Amino acid sequence: MALHVRKAVIPAAGLGTRFLPATKAQPKEMLTIVDKPAIQYVVEEAVAAGIDDVLIITGTAKKSLEDHFDRAFELETLLERKGKTEPLREIIEIAEMAKFHFTRQPEPLGLGHAVLMAEQHVGNEPFVVLLPDELMISRGGTVKAMVDAYGTYGASNVALREVPMSEVSSYGCAATEAVADGIVKIPHIVEKPAVHDAPSNRVVMGRYLFTPDIFEHIHNTTPGVGNEIQLTDAMAKIANTTGLYGVIDNEGSWDAGQKLDFLRAQVELGLQHPELGEDFAALLKTIAADL
């Protein structure tokens, strides 16, 4: 099996009901953070980690995702005619960041099923899965560390972070054994355990690197609550067979699927913006002084 990881899968078939009515007619992944749709930050993260092939799993009313990562020749012609070279360069670069592919998840049968939709495209290669709701503060750093860990151990791995024990029941939670600086072995993992059943306070972030045997395990996973196929159940099987590792992420993320964290991402990414950051900081100080 090849050790070079070049493919990424982004499950983006959800309906985004937490953000209604904004998501009534547009995908939640296309909601803008500062000056980019949220999903573009995720794609840029994958590309920064060396990924050059991106498969996006879509669903109903997600055509704008495909349009965003495609060339827009009419718009490009208009920008060129008006001499707007910088916007022209930016929109061309979006389409040329990677090779983009799209496939539709016909039914909302869970994250495991969404990942399964990538089986034919991935083939017998390792691949990363990036959940578009989670925007990593490290940008491509976490995924790059996961790719490096795969190069060392040749096994699947996931990004982990520590949360208060009171919060573990909201996540996939891993038992861990230290093997190297920032790297742990995961002998056991469970989805949303009760606090008293949690194996640790280390939980899975929305970044995964899988060997292709994950597909066999998903096929053999029985649907659970809501008739959904849980990805964590398939991961537990990998942990017991070819092995599962964890890469500890200490920088954190923005959960763009939650309104408050979405607003936090707007502020913090706005402050980091090379053109807007300084003026935005001054504006926030003015607003705070008026409160």
Features:
291 residues, alpha/beta, Spore Coat Polysaccharide Biosynthesis Protein SpsA, Chain A, two-stranded antiparallel sheet, 11 helices, 36% helix, globular
How are the secondary structure elements laid out?
Layout: E1 7-11, E2 32-33, E3 36-37, H1 38-48, E4 53-58, H2 63-68, H3 73-81, H4 85-96, E5 99-104, H5 111-116, H6 119-122, E6 127-130, E7 134-136, H7 141-153, E8 156-162, E9 172-180, E10 183-191, E11 202-210, H8 214-219, H9 231-239, E12 244-248, E13 253-255, H10 259-272, H11 277-290
Parallel strand pairs: 1-4, 1-6, 4-5, 8-12
Antiparallel strand pairs: 2-3, 6-11, 7-13, 8-11, 9-10, 10-12
Helix pairs in contact: 3-4, 10-11
Written account of the structure:
With 291 residues, the chain is α/β, with parallel strands linked by helices. It is built from eleven helices and 13 strands. It has one domain: Spore Coat Polysaccharide Biosynthesis Protein SpsA, Chain A. Strands 5-4-1-6-11-8-12-10-9 form a nine-stranded mixed beta sheet. Strands 2-3 form a two-stranded antiparallel ribbon. It has a two-stranded antiparallel sheet with strand order 7-13. It is globular. The N and C termini lie far apart (59 Å). The mean pLDDT is 92.
